[in-house]
Design a protein that fits this description.
The protein has 296 residues and is an all-alpha fold. The chain folds into 2 domains: 72 residues, no CATH class; 216 residues, MetI-like fold (Orthogonal Bundle). It is 72% helix and 0% strand. The chain is globular. The chain starts with a helix and ends in a 5-residue tail after the last helix. The relative contact order is 0.12.
Length: 296
């Protein structure tokens, strides 16, 4: 209650708690949040715990959430048996290139539309907004045809470039750049900096929050992307984690006799990197998203 007495901001302040129906609303609000948390957390929690179960435990009736024994050596055994390190490295290469492409190309276009504003920038912005209404799957046939014609099969270049032309990331960059005072760019140009130097030496250091947000979004999207890597990366040495999981679950899994607990362990390993990175940078993500649409 002492903390509530000092509460003077937000939807409900301390004076609102003097009415009984406010307590009911407050309790209902927290109940909804608790149920939402349960629905969100339970699936990955079940996955991690079930990955340590044996096949007999998975099919046991009645259902038990916790395994009889958590054997950490199983993680190493599965990792070594499937040679999963190579696929993790491939996914990291795809993610690293996608992050660089999403920051450079989308940021550069947003810089041109928001700061430089050359002739025709309004048309460019309108075309980008129109592209948001086109489902990405409709472009897949044309995109794959161009990839084949350019000889980019079994390369990571197409997987990088698709994130360099993302209208959502462009809009996030533009909204953030619109908040920055234009006097900074004018002062840099007076000091002799050209447009490219302003972008790299002035704009990018000031845009670390939005760069972090776009990087995390790109990491999550590139790491979990399946369709385009499945079409482009045909040979096993180039495949990513998600493509390998699909292969294990389909033809290879049946032929080699993998048990369901092995597949669950692989799925659990595949979701660890984005989850860990989100928890590390969650404060930066939420603060940047909350202020992206605010223009000073």
């Amino acid at each position: 209650m002492k903390r509530l007495r000092r509460k003077t901001t937000g939807i409900i302040v301390h004076s609102d708690y003097k009415r009984w129906h406010t307590y009911v609303l407050y309790a209902a609000f927290f109940l909804v949040l608790a149920l939402t948390l349960l629905v969100t957390v339970f699936p990955p929690l079940w996955l991690f715990l079930s990955s340590f179960k044996t096949p007999v435990e998975l099919y046991r009736v009645p259902f038990t959430l916790f395994p009889d024994e958590i054997r950490l050596s199983k993680v190493y055994d599965v990792w070594r048996m499937l040679g999963f390190g190579r696929y993790f490295i491939n996914s990291l290469i795809v993610v690293a290139g996608a992050i660089l492409a999403s920051i450079f190309f989308n940021g550069l276009l947003a810089y041109a539309v928001s700061v430089i504003k050359p002739k025709g920038y309004r048309l460019v912005f309108a075309l980008v907004m129109i592209s948001l209404m086109i489902p990405p799957i409709l472009n897949m046939g044309t995109l794959f045809h161009n990839i084949v014609r350019l000889g980019l099969i079994n390369t990571y270049v197409p997987l990088w470039l698709v994130f360099g032309a993302n209208p959502f990331y462009f809009i996030m960059f533009k909204a953030y750049f619109d908040r920055l005072p234009k006097a900074l760019f004018e002062a840099a140009e007076i000091d002799g900096a050209n447009k490219i130097q302003v972008f790299f030496r002035i704009l990018m250091p000031l845009s670390k929050p939005i760069v972090g947000v776009v990087s995390i979004f790109t990491l999550n999207a590139a790491w979990s992307d399946f369709l385009l890597p499945f079409l482009v990366l045909l040979d096993d040495p180039y495949q990513t984690v998600m493509v390998k999981i699909f292969k294990l679950h389909s033809d290879l899994g049946t032929a080699m006799g993998f048990s369901p607990d092995i597949l669950l362990m692989v799925l659990a390993l595949s979701i660890i990197p984005p989850v860990v990175l989100f928890f590390i940078f969650q404060k930066q993500i939420t603060s940047a998203v909350a202020t992206t649409g605010i223009k000073e």
